[in-house]
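Fill in residues.
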């Protein structure tokens, strides 16, 4: 039975990540002939798609796999994020009262970190892999209240943590801005762009990556799925595959699935140049730490090992998957002020890049994992924290599709769900922007 054919809107050619200079963002592989038929087609070479591809090298080395992306690896959210590989449940997951659910998420996250660590070591991927844990910080009363909630969740699952007061925070971060923070040791900090590009350069032999090939038409069938690929210069190829993994996060709706359940949401980050020797002299904190906000509407902050500051905050609805240019300029100003009020002694520290990145959220905070149509698999709606969840989802989607049962597969199914139906436009756009403005206003003390 043939299903409808969809013509996905492609990821925009917007301003990509600022982690590395733009000229490093070229495709990893543009050669190798594309055949007409594959055992597996993976669309999307972010952390989810790359992890699926790696897994296929382990469990189905005889299968022919094509991994495509419309943009160079790292162009999407997987190369634009703040670089926290989180081991603990985060954000909305913390609201869940069931301790066994929290433990399952933690086990999945830790296993993903373990696998990524092995890959980083095996392939010598230089991505500033730093096992330094993370801070969950609060600026004012609203944040400290949420910090307490985080501690309660950690107590429930018997995880160790340390609560820092203002002075404790200042000793690490060199700023008196934070009233307190919870330190947990298990998260890892990375340069996300270097991680995903390193994985892409070391794919198994049975996987061919083309990160210059956009899927411009797609039809899932109960037999084989078909995708029309567009290559630079306008050439096209049609491929069919027995199994498809749509590792396309918010763009999954462009392929005809969960069109009214996935909410494309943008968040923004800025990064500075490395501190000069004189600035380092005036900076009283340590190098290489990361803080996520106790209040999800607050600010993420990092000091990288090479002395760059990264700041991330603000959310918006992004039906076109990109930032509005004027708003991006406004966010750059807000980020500059955010750094100045935290680090007054560093003065006018130049931001080298400000960018937005699109992730998918769901109305009920459920993350999707599973088979969307016969032989078409996807994981999405990581609700803004998809690096470890994406890594475990990619691997376990392969296991699901290949019929390989495991406790990890049972766990990910148990903690996933179906994103709720969103209202139609214009109610959706109005409702979402109103809600996001409200969250921003409520969280203003934590920005
Ligand atoms: C600023 C920012 C900070 C963040 N910080 C963190 C963090 O610190 N920790 C964390 O865990 N998460 C963080 N996230 C979220 C995290 O980056 C995402 O959840 C995760 O990267 C999703 O990975 P993915 O592989 O599923 O999707 P993506 O990385 O979005 O990959 C999807 C890919 O599909 C490709 N694609 C789409 N349509 C097509 C098509 N038609 N043809 C071919 N290819 C197509 C896209 O080009 C893209 O490369 C952050 C996100 C942002 C934007």
């Amino acid at each position: 039975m043939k299903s409808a054919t969809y013509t996905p809107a492609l990821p925009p050619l917007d301003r990509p990540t600022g982690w590395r200079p733009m000229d490093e963002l070229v495709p990893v592989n543009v050669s190798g002939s594309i055949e007409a038929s594959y055992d597996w087609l993976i669309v999307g070479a972010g952390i989810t798609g790359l992890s699926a591809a790696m897994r296929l090298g382990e469990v189905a080395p005889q299968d022919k796999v094509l991994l495509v992306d419309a943009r160079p690896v790292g162009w999407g959210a997987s190369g634009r994020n703040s670089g926290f590989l989180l081991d603990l449940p985060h954000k909305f997951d913390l609201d869940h009262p069931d301790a066994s659910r929290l433990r399952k998420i933690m086990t999945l996250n830790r296993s993903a970190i373990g696998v990524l660590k092995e890959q980083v070591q095996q392939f010598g991927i230089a991505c500033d892999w730093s096992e330094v844990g993370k801070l969950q910080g609060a600026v004012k009363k609203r944040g400290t209240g949420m910090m307490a909630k985080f501690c309660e969740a950690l107590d429930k699952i018997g995880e160790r943590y340390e609560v820092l007061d203002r002075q404790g925070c200042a000793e690490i971060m060199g700023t008196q801005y934070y009233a307190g923070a919870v330190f947990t040791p298990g998260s890892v900090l990375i340069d996300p762009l270097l991680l995903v590009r390193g994985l892409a350069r070391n794919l198994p032999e049975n996987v061919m990556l083309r990160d210059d090939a956009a899927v411009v038409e797609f039809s899932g069938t109960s037999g084989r799925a078909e995708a029309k690929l567009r290559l630079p210069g306008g050439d096209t190829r049609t491929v069919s595959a027995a199994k498809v993994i749509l590792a396309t996060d918010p763009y999954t709706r462009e392929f005809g699935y969960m069109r009214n359940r996935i909410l494309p949401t943008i968040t923004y980050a800025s990064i500075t140049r490395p501190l000069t020797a004189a600035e380092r002299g005036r900076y009283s904190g340590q190098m290489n730490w990361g803080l996520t906000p106790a209040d999800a509407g607050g600010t993420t902050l990092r000091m990288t090992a090479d002395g760059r500051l990264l700041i991330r905050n603000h959310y918006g609805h992004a039906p076109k998957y990109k930032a509005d240019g004027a708003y991006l300029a406004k966010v750059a100003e807000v980020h500059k002020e955010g750094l100045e009020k935290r680090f007054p002694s560093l003065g006018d520290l130049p931001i080298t890049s400000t960018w937005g990145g699109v992730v998918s959220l769901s109305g009920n905070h459920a993350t999707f994992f599973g088979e969307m149509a016969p032989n078409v698999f996807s994981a999405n709606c990581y609700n803004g924290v998809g690096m470890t969840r994406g890594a475990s989802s990619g691997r376990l989607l392969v296991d699901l599709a290949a019929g390989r049962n495991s406790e990890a597969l049972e766990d990910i199914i148990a903690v996933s769900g179906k994103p709720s139906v969103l209202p139609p436009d214009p109610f959706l756009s109005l409702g979402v922007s109103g809600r996001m403005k409200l969250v921003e206003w409520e969280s203003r003390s934590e920005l």
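The radius of gyration is 21 Å.
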